[in-house]
Amino acid sequence: MTVARSADSVKAVVKAYDVRGVVGEQIDAEFVRDVGASFARLMRGEGAGRIVIGHDMRESSPGLAAAFAAGVGAQGLDVVHIGLASTDELYFASGHLGCPGAMFTASHNPARYNGIKLCRANALPVGQDTGLATIAAELVDGVPGFDRAPGTVTEEHLLDAYASFLRKLVDLSGIRPLRVAVDAGNGMGGYTVPAVLGAVPQLTVDPLYFELDGTFPNHEANPLDPKNLVDLRKFVRETGADLGLAFDGDADRCFVVDERGEPVPPSAITALVAERELAKEPGATVIHNLITSKAVPELVAELGGNPVRTRVGHSFIKQQMAATGAIFGGEHSAHYYFRDFWGADSGMLAALHVLAALGGGDGPMSELASAYSRYAASGEINSTVDDAADRTRAVLAAFEGRATSVDRLDGVTVQLPDNAWFNLRASNTEPLLRLNVEARSPEEVDALVTEILSIVRG
Predict the structure, then answer these.
(1) What's the CATH number for 7-157?
(2) Top-level class of domain 376-456
(3) pTM for this one?
(4) Does domain 266-370 have CATH number 3.40.120.10?
(5) 291-349 pLDDT, tens per residue?
(6) Would you say domain 180-261 falls under CATH 3.40.120.10?
(7) By C-alpha distance, which of 28, 27, 58 is closest to 215?
(8) Residues with a known catalytic role
(9) Span between the terminal Cα atoms of the chain, in Å
């Protein structure tokens, strides 16, 4: 039996989708060892015999991964350690080896954080309702011991296999020569991009911040924040690149910048990839979360596909991918999910689709992206509030006479005349309200944002 912990301390770290906290304060080797033991017990009960483990470039990651492996081994399961990896490489390993996986990363969070993304065999998600609640309960009560022989630990290098697998999914052999500027943000993209793109002779890759450094000395590895795209936008213009790619810390998300240095909305990338996937399988289902542009379901329907709307969050998308047999799914946060990739997300695979689409034509990236951008959007705007429910009610009251419909799939989504809409969602972990607005013009978006924020922020 392992040590018992307070429910509050465990709840602060075991989130809806993963385990994440400040190293040395909220998580340490002992805590992670017990997470490993509990996860192993859960997977052993489902018939698993081994677990694959990977980690990012953070200073704390190798030690925490080793502690997790010790917990797994103590429960009689074997460990396959792939070492440095992006999160989507870990998902590849889970599918390739047919076993559950654990990825040590805190994604785009600052250097003092670390965490664990868990999955079942074939990259099936482990979320609050599919395993994390069970693990949390055992961390509070103490993980029962195991009286049989400990498992073994082996090492396996899968980077080349991962890169080869992705390139087989998207054929780049016939594209025109392209110059690609890539900002890895000192994260795992600096490890995976050379392996994947470096083997494509038509591509010239201009690297920015490829040095693996978990202190993130140049900028946060979070391209969703516009300030972290400033360097790439400038770099694209300086190098004359055909496009720019920016990856987050664990390189499972990819953002695109056109040849002018202008960011391409993730919704446009979702629509672009959806069109390519529907060309392979007409009539297939495409998942989109409720924050993506209306252009996505419109285009999917126009192409004869079946658009399915879901809540925000990778566990919801992955569940819907599995339930519907969807060929592809996309989120506003630049997570892109592929049936051909075990239903898991891969920013690198999305990047290959963009390169194939751009390299298969003669026009610039800005022209390509414009075909998938029909509306203006605010992006996600966060407001700190004391009572999210009260502020949401006040906003709904203000729009009561103008709303054509209101739904509560995830927060509140208010439909307005002329295809305008907004979504207001409370954060699960912070005292924040998150606002997204879309309308036909930037002026309409600005007016709605101003009106809504005046109510939210008082």
Answers:
(1) 3.40.120.10
(2) alpha beta
(3) 0.95
(4) yes
(5) 999 999 999 999 999 999 999 887 789 889 999 999 999 999 999 999 999 999 999 99
(6) yes
(7) 58
(8) 107
(9) 51
